[in-house]
Target: Oligopeptide-binding protein OppA
Amino acid sequence: MPPEIRRAFPWFLVGVCGCAVIWALSFTTLPPADFAFQNGDDVKTLDPARATGEPEHKILQALFEGLLRSVPDGPVDENGLQDVTLVPGMADLPEISEDGRTYTFRMRDGMKWSDGTPVTSRDFAWSWQRVLHPETASEYSSQLYYVVGGKEYNTAEVAVGDRVEAELRERPASPDPLQPFPRGTVVHGILESIEKPERPEIEDETSDEGKKLLADWQNDWVYAIDVKPQTDAGIDWDAAGQLRYFTKQTDGGEFDGKKLESVHQVLIDFAHFGGVETPDDQTLIVKLNEPTPFFSYLTGFYTLFAVNRECVEKYGAPAWTKSENMVCNGPYELEFRRIRDRIRLRKNPYYWNTDAVDLDRIDAYSVKSQTTALNMYLKDQLHWASDVPLSVIEEIQERDDAKVGVSLAVYFYRLNTTRKPLDDVRVRRALNLAIDKQQIVNEVTRAGQIPAESIVPPYLSEYQSPSGEGYDPELARQLLADAGFPGGRGMPTLSILYNTSESHRAIAEVIQQQWQNNLNVKASLENMEWGTYLDKVFTMDFTIARGGWNGDYPDPNTFLEMWTTGNSHNSTGWSSPEYDKLIAQSQAASGQERMDLLRQAESIFLKDLPVIPLYFYTRTNLFSPDYAGFEPNVMDQHPLHLIRRRDSNDE
Model:
């Protein structure tokens, strides 16, 4: 090291330490928020199109608002639960056609983004198309498969004769040419032909190698499109077009002596012929493939929220979600986000009902430790603790400030059916039969949870699940022997993946011991932070993974459709054509016929067992008596903008 650098090095260290002290002091000198709550893990994203988890749900419901909103409403019933109802959000309640396939939403007057610009129907149309765009990679894109053309656009399914769009490789350099938005030049036309080379032999299309081989083959396709002229009035579909040839290969090339133009995607023309129309800024018309009784609820779920197009295209993803860039339309806006500390929300003055929002600032703390959350609550550093220590759960439930209720949610273990020996249903059944779920809810969770033998919770009045298999270690040992592992001999150690939580670990340890005692099967435990855990589940980089699912809407479909082939939430490798067919048939049915079809599908699911249902949730929350606007409900919906300081009217 040169002497002048050596002499300067101590001063450099002093500077670094000084910066660290200033940064640390910024945490301690921060003025307190009006309300603070435990939000569990750090959120992985604040992009509604990319979010998937419960920590994200609470924040996105405060930052954004959909066409409609699902809110707790009315008195608390004899079970201590409050009803949940749909209310207008950015739009009034929809007009629904007689056949149940067309929803017409009218935007409400005065709806604005947090920069003061108007929220229009076109914002929702653009945002929904963004969710469906293949390069957005939204795990919840299937929620828009009910819309005409939604699945085909998302999965890039095109056929000869389709009206299509082709995006040339001319994306703007700013913010990043690899970003799908803003888009490059898009041409429109009629697909005349697709020339495909010979398909390679692929043993496993779900493997990384299989996916690459399939993608490389598809990139070699040649699309012949009769491209139609575009005028100020739009695309002239009746005019004579120009036959042009396109490929996804980045270098273009030639085909039969014809020039090949390189494109990012060739997709159906969803913007013009999909099931979303915007005849004007105030009207959104949605056309569905089949009557979908829960579609109104979906419009209040964060995947279907509108995002500000100008903001997304200016900064790109994920930079548009930074506090200094974000434009939102909910009751709160993002003041700052500090990793492993908190998210601070600030009241949005442009929100249509801002006068009714009582709390100016809210802190969402990234507190995973149940003990830490309880201590912070008891010291008034938190006003809402949503995950309390299992060791004192019974005592906590006796407190006057405890809010306890059942929840439309299930706790389960995903099984990677593409890995041996979990590809054998006998092994999967044996693992399930060897778990004493009653012991788990009695001795570990201890909050009134119900052991689960099905995947759909028993809180939907119009639906009853088929019976699954209960605790039977003798049958479990027989099945394991039939699968070639008598007495557990030859059975590999099974790894259980879970995200950081004291309760997840406690449950995994009990199951680890039960499998050892009942089957002589060993299991190892693998703990991951929330973001890494989600990535591993999504890419199926696990053997067994802890999972949980909160109902997105009050219908059994929210617990069953996710296991269809290719669904981004499946993440088990399991596929059943019969199951897929029943789910599809249910979406074209209604009433009791629909419920019977869903029940048949769940029966197949419980026989094949790609997941092990463990228990149905109850929620135990500690909520400060200084505040009001919080009561248990089966959907576990607690909008932050409805929480308020308690006054004499709340007594």
